[in-house]
Structure formats: C-alpha cells, structure tokens
Specification:
about 300 residues; alpha/beta; Spore Coat Polysaccharide Biosynthesis Protein SpsA, Chain A; 5-stranded mixed β-barrel; two-stranded antiparallel ribbon; 10 helices; 13 strands; globular; binds uridine 5'-triphosphate
C-alpha cells in the first residue's frame, strides 16, 4: 500500500548539552558504544531497511561527522599492506557511496520539526521519507526501521515507533492518543508532545523512528512553535490526524536505549559490551565482581 521509502533524514544538529564537556568538541553522534559511533548504528539500521539516500541535518561543530563517512585511503592502504583484512572490512562499512549522502545545515537549533524541515528540498513533493534519531539505539531483529517499513507497506499513512513507558516518565516524550489498538499496530487519533504529568492520553511514547507522508513536510512549512517554544515534529504529525490522514504507531520488537541520556548510554554500553564474543567473558566477570563488592559494602 505505502510507496517505497528510500530516503532517511538524520537530524544531528542538536547541541548535545547533556554530554558536556565531551560534546564541546565532539559531536554526540560520534560517541561510541564499545567501538562503534552512535551514527554508525543508525546508518546500519537504515541500510538494512533499504534506505539508499542519507540526509544529515547538521550544525556548527559537526565536521567530525562529515569526515567520519569519508574514505580513509591512507589508513585503508596501511591496513591492507599489514594484511589486517578484518579491520579493513570494519572500516569499509563506514564508507558511503558517492552521492548517497547529503549534508544540510540547520543554522539555529529551533527544534526537531525545524531540523526535518531543513531537508525539504532534498525530497520530492510526493515522497514518503524516514526520520532516524541517532540518540535512540535499538537492538532488534529485524532492525526496528525494517519492522516499520514492513508494517507501513500494509498500512500506508505515517508511522511512528512506539513503546509503553511508566507514567512518571511519559512527560518526556511525544505520546499517542489511541483510536484503535490492533496489537502490534495502533491507529492514533491524536499525538501530544511532552504532556503535563497526569494529562497523558496513554503511556505509548513515540521514540526516534518515523516514516512520514510527504504532507508532514507541508505541515512543517507553517513553522508553528509548540512545546518548549520549539518547532515540534510531533505537532506536524498530529496535524495529519486532524486533517483526516492516517497515523499509526508500531510497537516494535526490541530493546531501545536512550543514548541521549547518560544513564541510557551507560546501559547500552553494558548491553553491547556483553554481546561481543571477544569481550563478554571478561566483561561479565568484571560486572559480577563490581556488584558483589557493592553488595558487601552495603
Ligand atoms: P534532543 O532533544 O536530544 O537535543 O534532540 P540535543 O541538543 O541533541 O541534546 P541535549 O538535550 O542538549 O543533550 C533530539 C534529536 O533532535 C536533533 C538532535 O540532534 C537529536 O538527534 N535536533 C534537535 C536537531 O537536529 N535540531 C534541533 O533544533 C533540535
């Protein structure tokens, strides 16, 4: 039903203040879980979902991010000469095809909706597109965006990734007002950004994966300020519902880590460290020791 989605927008123009001082000179998206930057997790997930064009909305001080995707010829030839084929393979995963990647600048951090809107000229008027927030790292099989593209193939409209969060946490998110609960997929009758505690329409929070109809971009043209004085993507999606177009939430299968927060980032580091064959024994033994020591000290 839905048209093929081949372009994804990665808004990476935020200030990353929660990771200062690290983000004073390093973009948040380059911070790594074990040895892989957040941005690489997002790119790998998008590629697996069939995305062919990658649009980064960047800002001042994000040069390291652009360099990250360049071919590192000297490094590659050194690894080749040294016969380090495994490392060479890992490095090559960071290379992007010529013309597959575009950078556009958001001159002022006016909000996520504004960041997405900055990419409008790189999409045609009738083209659905994905939005991927690199802060949300998701372990899932198949990867979350692929699950969404499969579900969107059935539903059309717009689709957001959603998960249940506890009532005391829900005010930090965009939240769905549910019209129809079909199990994995819900149809929304409203969407609200950061509802005040106790006013949330449900506990279904929207997290950083979206497949959006081209009309969402048109809604963003109005550049209306929403919660926190920011131009909110949530408001532009909610407008779809108000105008009678379909918006769905997908309860994806997988574990999501909020790597925009320190606690989430540390949890993800532990989870991804324990997944690595070469690390898991030593690392889990260390974690056990630490926990035992803490318990003994109590
Ligand atoms: P956040 O709300 O996490 O903001 O943005 P932030 O600036 O990245 O981080 P903190 O809160 O200061 O630590 C969510 C996503 O939206 C992007 C961010 O880069 C991040 O991927 N964003 C946000 C923009 O690209 N532009 C904006 O104006 C706002």
């Amino acid at each position: 039903m839905g048209r093929k989605v081949t372009k994804a927008i990665f808004p990476v123009a935020g200030l990353g203040t929660r990771f200062l001082p690290a983000t004073k000179s390093i973009p948040k998206e380059i911070l790594s879980l074990v040895d892989k930057p957040l941005i690489q997790y997002a790119i790998d997930e998008a590629r697996a979902a069939g995305i062919k064009e990658f649009i980064f909305v960047t800002s001042r001080g994000k040069g390291a991010l652009e360099d990250y995707f360049d071919h590192a010829h000297e490094l590659e030839s050194n690894l080749k000469k040294a016969g380090k084929d495994k490392l060479l393979d890992i490095l090559r995963q960071t290379n992007m095809d010529s013309g597959a990647i575009a950078y556009i600048r958001q001159h002022k951090a006016l909000g996520l909706g504004h960041a997405v809107w900055c990419a409008r000229r790189l999409l045609s008027d009738d083209e659905p597109f994905a939005v991927v927030l690199t802060d949300d790292v998701i372990q899932g099989e198949p990867p979350c965006l692929q699950q969404m593209i499969e579900a969107y193939g059935e539903t059309g409209g717009s689709m957001v990734a959603t998960m249940e969060v506890p009532s005391d946490k829900v005010s930090a998110y965009g939240v769905l007002d549910v019209a129809e609960d079909m199990g994995a997929i819900v149809r929304a009758k409203g969407m609200v950004e950061k509802p005040k505690a106790g006013t949330q329409p449900s506990n279904l929070a929207v997290i950083g994966r979206y497949i959006l109809a081209p009309t969402v971009m048109r809604n963003l043209n109005k550049l209306k300020q929403g919660a926190g004085g920011e131009i909110q993507l949530t408001d532009a999606i909610a407008e779809e519902i108000e105008e009678g177009r379909d918006v769905f939430g997908l309860r994806f299968r997988g574990q999501r880590f909020d790597c925009g927060s320190k606690a989430g980032f540390l949890q993800a580091t532990v989870a991804f460290g324990l997944e690595r064959d070469e690390l898991k024994d030593e690392f889990s033994e260390y974690l056990h020791q630490v926990m035992a020591m803490r318990k003994a000290a109590e």
